[in-house]
Each structure stands twice: as C-alpha cells, then as structure tokens.
Amino acid sequence: MNEVLSRTREEVGKVIVGQNEVINQALIVIVTRSHALIEGVPGIAKTLLVRTLAHVLGCPFARIQFTPDLMPADITGTNVFNLQRNEFSLVRGPIFTSFLLADEINRAPAKTQSALLQAMQERAVTIDREDHRLPDNFTVFATQNPIEHEGTYPLPEAQKDRFMLKISMDCPNREEELQLARRMLGTDSPEATLASGAVKTVLQEQDLRDIRGSLEAITVREELVGYMVEIVRATRTHESVLVGAGPRATQALLLSSRAQAAILGRDFVTPDDVRAMVHPVLTHRLILRPEYEIEGVSVEEEIDRVVQGVEVPR
Predict the structure, then answer these.
(1) Are strands 87-92 and 77-82 parallel, antiparallel or unpaired?
(2) The whole model's pTM is what?
C-alpha cells in the first residue's frame, strides 16, 4: 500500500505543482471510499487534479458542469422510448462512472443537487422506480469557488454532510508559481504533460479494493477512538456553534485518521493524525451562531478551541 500511494503521489506530482497536502487528502478520500468537496479560487487546478488522479489510478472519469438550468435527469439519466424496438431503454447519465467531478456544484439549485444524495450514500440511483447500481469505486469530487457568490445556491446540510472532507486548495508559493510559469513557456505545461502520456497509470480500478483492505491493518487504540468521539460531541455543545457535527463526522474522522497514518507510512494512528484531519472533516459541517459570525469569528478558530478543550489520551 505504501509503495502504491508513493508512486501515485509521484505521478500526480508530474502534473500538479505543489499542493502535496491536497494530494494526500484526495488519496485519503479515495482509499476510504468516500467523497470530497474541493474549494479554491478559479484556475488553481481543481479539475486537473481529479482528472490526473483518475488517470493514475486507472478509473473512468466524468465531469458535470453544474448550472442553474441543470436538471436531475441530466445527471442520473432517463428512460427514452425506442421506436425501432417499441420499448423504453435507459440512457445513462454521467453519474455512471468511477470518478465524478461535480464542477461548481453550488451553481445548481437544491433540486438538482439532490440527484447526488442517494448516489453518494448508497452508490445507486433510482430511475423510474428502478434501482441501478453504480461502480464500486464511485467517488464524487465537487468543486466550488469561494469568491464567486453571485448566481450560487448554498449547499443543503444533508449534501455537505455526505462529503467526508473539505479540501482547501490555496495558491502556490512563489517558487512553485515560478516553476509553473516556466513550464507554461515550454511544452511541458501541466495539461500537456497529462495529455502526452508521460504520466503513468499506477494500478487498475479493481486493485483499489485490495488497497482499501490494507487499511484494516492500521491499529487504532481504544483511547484514540474515544478521543475522536469526544471531539465531535464537543462541537454540539460549544457556546459558539449553532449546529454541530453528527455521527457521520465521527466515522469520517476515524477513517481519515487511519488513512492519514497509512499515507505517512505508519501502521498505527496517533493523536497528531487525528488533529491533522479535524479541520478537513469538521469545517463544512459546523454552523456558527449569528452573533459570533458578526464578530468575525471563523469556523477554523472555533474548531481549534473545541480540540483544545478535549483531553489528549496518553
């Protein structure tokens, strides 16, 4: 598992400049069979990251551009009457893939966003009262731009809770941006590198199941499980939090901490792994009280206060 993840990071790094922590978090989502919400300014390679991961891991990829006029059937598909056969046949939507990029998901209304709810939870879609299974590796990477609020809709709480992690992509530092600028002057720009075939496929889609099975070998002490539970429960009673995290957040914190330990080459979880995953797991799940938001208090600051109030196991 360590060898495969290391090779995956190496191949993705040929395209994505910097963003090492983002790549690790994306791999955590994949190996735990979960979903991620990616947030970052336009042009920071959110779409390119998912396309590259799909290529390196040998998984089919599909992209949906969310717009205000997008309908649920445009995502799931629909039954169309075939005049030659005199019967209805299913035209599958782009959701029938392994890696689905929901680009700018907050530009579609809640009616359209709800088309993903069943798929993200059950890995199945219901079309005309008939259930259709999705691929075993079905993973949703949804993107949203934090600075573009005009023409956007807020994500429902049920939708946000289905995302295991919120991955924040920041702008590269000066050296990384300088490297990117130099590559754009030549023939090895990130898009050209991916299209040229220089990026190798590390494994096949069916091999991901074996990778996930390796996570069971990662030891999580009972005291650490209790530590994670107390952190999530503390968000529900904290003075500044209006809506705290639910039980799904506890599951996400446990699975992501275990995957974090595996990516770092350890077969056991430490409190540092838990603290490293607290922000990606909880940031999009908490809602602050209005009086604290008016004062400019951030969710990240309150999460730090919550974690500081929970005793760390020895």
Answers:
(1) antiparallel
(2) 0.90
| SS3 per residue for 49-86 | HHHHHHHHCCCCEEEEECCCCCCHHHHHEEEEEECCCC
Around 308, how many Cα atoms within 13 Å sit in the side-chain half-sphere? 6
CATH topology classification for 2-210: Rossmann fold (3.40.50)
- CATH 3.30.300.30 at 218-308, yes or no: no
Q: CA geometry: angle at 207 spanning 201 and 210, to 5°?
A: 140
- Tens of pLDDT, residue by residue, the chain (314 residues): 778 888 888 999 889 888 889 999 999 999 999 999 999 888 888 889 999 999 999 899 999 999 989 999 999 988 888 878 888 888 899 999 999 999 999 888 888 888 899 999 999 998 888 889 999 899 999 998 775 566 678 888 888 999 999 999 888 889 988 988 888 887 788 888 888 888 888 888 778 888 888 888 899 999 999 999 999 999 999 999 998 899 999 999 999 999 999 888 888 999 999 999 999 999 999 999 999 888 888 899 999 999 999 998 87
The alpha-carbon radius of gyration of the chain (Å, integer) is 20
Q: Where are the domains of the chain?
A: 2-210, 218-308
- Any idea how long the chain is? 314
